[in-house]
Amino acid sequence: MKRMPTVVESSTASTSTTRRKLRLPRLGLFCCSLVLAMLAEYCAYLNEGGGGNVRRALHVIALTVFFMVMTLVFEHFISWLGRDSKQTESSQSHPSILSRLLRRIAPDFTGDRHQALKAAGVMAVCWLPYYLLALPSEIWYDTVQQVMMWKGLPNPITSGAWSDHHPVLDTLIFGVFYQLGAWIGHPAVGVALYTTCIAIASIAVFVYTVRYLAKSGVSRKAYLGAFLFFCVFPFIPIFAMAMVKDAVFLPVFMLFSVQCMEVARTKGACLKNRRTLALFIMLAFLVSLTKKTGVYSVALACILLAFVVAGNRARVKLLGTAAASGLVIFILLPLVLFPACHIIPGGKQEMIAIPLQQSALLLREHGDELSKSDKDILTGMLEPNAAENYEWWAVDKIKGTHWTHQRENLLKPFLRVWAKNAVIYPQTYAKAYFMLEQGWIALPNSTVNENLQSSYLYTRTAPGKNADIAGLPQSKYTRLYDGIDQFVIWLGNQFFTQPWLSRAFWATWLPFMQLYETVRRLRAKELSWTYAAWLAPMLVSVPFLWISGGSVTYEGLRYLMPMLGIAPIGCALLTVQQQPSHADR
């Protein structure tokens, strides 16, 4: 990878100008902080079941101030991150022992492949403890179902046939590693081989991402900070090495994100290269094939990039990629491949999970007030006894795993009844939605643990009949993994660490701060649109978090994986020292 040219501003000439341009009104920050505060307090109100209006108002004021202060702290952090590290070091006549040690250890991310191998080695050493804890693998609930499909065993979704309820490509990958282990002597060997391969792949992708940042004009502190984050933030290796479909999706999505960044940086000129275009299309297909919502992420990303690139040819290539991905997912697979391979298509209940959850609560709280026709439609669409089985934290018992002919026939009437009652019972709908998605917006509280968790007890030792039937390994070191999980929970509940380990910080607060600071710099003409478009991966990920089927459960942690991976990108783009007018030179 060649060094990408940048035009660096004079630090002395631009500092005062930058500060003057960035002195913009803070009305936008206040309004956004107020909205975030009201949403967080509304979730607290739902959890606590009431409370005085005065106390709630004071909480909203305090949270508004908290979000504003946190954003201002983030601005100072970005300012520090963007300082020229070489200039800082030269101002020190005697660099500290720590700084000299770090210079020796830190790889040169603008160097050759040997430096890339050095970076991968450093990251591998940092990940080693988590790798040993994960062996043979961290197996999630959905993976057990997929392995049972591979073996043709009855499972919660089918009687033994494959189903597109989970991405077929992920099922194929897990099944191949499982089968390799069975051929060698035990499935656990294949599972451990999967853990090793996914760890190597993830490390390679993270190092590649940091090298791209280093050669794209971001500050040295920014790309070294990204590397440090990938190395030492424990939830990165814990999630990246899991045997779950989201872990397969993560490195693919990171590579696709880097390609989107390159398309934006070059304004589409890179797509003139056939190899680059082929790589972009291939990654778009893989993103679509490894996650059910991946095709929508690809479509949104291509549409956003179409506003940044120069020339209609580049726009046609981007929109053509989105159309081709949709063609594969919505036509080629269900109409050609699935019938030929006897694969059961996935149901539409995944796409209407929120309306189903809201309808279940509607039946539970206002069933007697509904007309007989509306009630018949809702009960026919939902799982049996949906009102009695309603759980505010998950939608699984409401949406089920099967899409029947009855549900297909009732889909349009159901949507009409759902929309009609949204006007009549808005509070019920809001309650169902925000209780389900509160992990992305609410402060951690005593009712719900909304922090990041290691989940080792759940993924390594959780007893389950299906796991035994599938022959998947489970650890007997229950005390060890329970101790680790409890320590992580305790750490997340401490005053100084709780905000940074909350799911809401990574899902909503940090993206908001990155977007807010990007908009300010665009208005102040201190950032070009070619770099602002680096937020596209984040912008296409957040919406699907907010319509997910759970946010506070163990399974909800899986949905957060892409946000953790792309978090450093939104920080790094704000350190680009480049005049907008020279962005394309």
Q: Assign an overall shape.
A: globular
What is the tally of helical segments?
Answer: 31
The residue fraction in helices comes out at 55-70%
Distance between the termini: 18 Å
Main pleated-sheet profile: 2 strands, parallel
Q: How many DSSP-defined strands? A: 2
Q: Which whole number gives the mean pLDDT?
A: 89
Percent of residues in beta strands?
A: under 5%
pLDDT below 50 for ≥5 consecutive residues: which ranges? 5-21, 87-91, 578-585
**Largest sheet: spatial strand order:** 1-2
Which structural class is indicated by helix and strand composition?
mainly alpha
Q: Gyration radius, to the nearest Å?
A: 25 Å
